[in-house]
Amino acid sequence: MRLDIFNKRSRPLLFRRLSEELFDILIIGGGITGASIFRDAALRGLRVALVEAKDFSSGTSGRSSKLIHGGLRYIKNLGLGLAWESCHERNLHVRLNKRLVRPLPFLVPLYRDRGESRWTMRIGMILYEALSGFNNYRFHRFLNREETLSMAPALPSQQLIGGCLYYDAVVNDSRWTIEVIKDGVRHGGIAINYAPVTQLLSTGAQVSGARACDRIGGSEYDVRAKTVISLLIRYAVLMAARHRIFFGFPKGHI
């Protein structure tokens, strides 16, 4: 599929292809997880389709913290391996994806007799820089009381002794998801939104596809696939586990 038909005008053509072809994988859900599976399958040469009920990245994937692989929070719990991996992934994205990922300064105020001490923060930041291979966007630095208040005048000033300025990175999560989907489309995948699944199709005891509704055109289409991956079911199960609702089967099966 070419990007020049990845648009609203081409929806009839895309739905016709969805209903006529047999896919290796059908993915239900156009968040970042579904988008990543979609792109990976397309890069491997599989015939893959993705359908989304609303806008791509309209759910959880569009409501993230916007931080991309920030590793500082892992250090406090001694998750050094995870922090190392996160920092290197972040630095890679800052270099390669400048349109979507940008460095962002963070200011941590330091107070006398509460919060993290200056020495604890200094040791943590040195370790953070080391785990990043000393390749962060800029090296951290400590500020005195006046410099800290000049950067953040609304901070409570009582017992403020200074601050620590360091850099992480932020990403536009919705655009990130769209770019991942577009790359999957470039490599032959078919992706379409506003196409909620109304029914799973089965052959015998095995799921063999899904019925998708075109919310703009109003028609329904049967999409056949050897494998169906539903991110909606995954989300429902995770929410059930969070709220201790197990639908009658043992917790260990979730």
Explain briefly what this protein structure is.
By secondary structure, the protein is an alpha/beta fold.
Tell me what you see in this structure.
By secondary structure, this protein is an alpha/beta fold. The chain folds into two domains: 3-62 and 174-253, FAD/NAD(P)-binding domain; 72-171, no CATH class. 35% of the residues lie in helices and 26% in strands. The protein is built from eight helices and nine strands. The strands form two sheets. It has a six-stranded mixed β-sheet. It has a three-stranded antiparallel β-sheet with strand order 3-5-4, sandwiched between helices. Helix 2 (32-43) packs parallel to helix 7.
What would the keywords be for this entry?
FAD/NAD(P)-binding domain; elongated; 3-stranded antiparallel beta sheet; 2 domains
Question: What's the SSE blueprint?
Answer:
Elements: H1 11-20, E1 22-28, H2 32-43, E2 48-51, H3 72-75, H4 80-96, E3 101-111, H5 118-131, E4 141-143, H6 145-151, E5 160-171, H7 173-186, E6 190-192, E7 197-203, E8 206-213, E9 220-230, H8 231-242
Parallel strand pairs: 1-2, 1-9, 2-6
Antiparallel strand pairs: 3-5, 4-5, 7-8, 8-9
Helix pairs in contact: 2-7
Structural class call reads: alpha/beta
β-sheet strand percentage: 25-35%
What's the overall average pLDDT, rounded?
87
Order of helices and strands: HEHEHHEHEHEHEEEEH
Gyration radius, in Å: 23 Å
Give the spatial strand order of the biggest sheet: 6-2-1-9-8-7
- Report how far apart the termini are: 36 Å
Number of strands: 9
Main sheet properties: 6 strands, mixed
Q: Quick one: CATH class of the largest domain? A: Alpha Beta
Please identify which CATH superfamily of the largest domain we are dealing with: FAD/NAD(P)-binding domain
* Gross geometry: elongated
